[in-house]
Amino acid sequence: TFMDKASMLVAHVVDPQPGERILDCCAAPGGKSMHMASLMNNTGAIMSCDIYDHKLELMNQNADRLGISIISTKLQDGRHLPDNWKEQFDRVLVDAPCSGLGILQKKLDMRWRKTESLLIELPPLQLEILEKASEMVKANGYLVYSTCTMNSGENEAVLNKFLAIHKNFIIDPVSYKGAPQAIDGMITTYPPRDHMDGFFMARMKRLS
What we know:
Layout: H1 5-14, E1 21-24, H2 31-39, E2 45-50, H3 53-66, E3 71-75, E4 89-95, H4 116-134, E5 137-147, H5 156-165, E6 169-171, E7 186-188, H6 191-194, E8 200-206
Parallel strand pairs: 1-2, 1-4, 2-3, 4-5
Antiparallel strand pairs: 5-8, 6-8, 7-8
């Protein structure tokens, strides 16, 4: 399956291990779930959620095509995850809905559909999803926040606000071959510099 290098970096930041239980909160179209399953040698379990039923069906078809059996899909809003999922996952990925400013070079029509109000409306939604997702992480587990935008209001600002509220999570600095150097434990890719899409990603560890 085809993916940009920046999208692939996200799965490496999550760093899922064979046998672990993973939650992908905003999974469609599913490339990151598929990549994580590959990194796990198709061993363990990945729960992939999204709010669009037709996209989940496409994910199921793609998983069948790739021979992946550990992915389960569920029609689920990331803001309202089930209570019986709390503290049940080793690693949780929030690839949050965002302005998409980092992928404009591939989706040229998007630039005509972006408004300034969108940049104001999205951060509260992103924080709400991130906070709910954090409840699903086991003690000593990991929470990854990523976007496909370079807007600091959706990236560092959301993450820093979350960390200020949730003292039981700390930044877990990551590095990966081919990725730009992390700043304050957070990675941002820039298309002109890094020759890939513009993404933001950071991994946090739950202490208790």
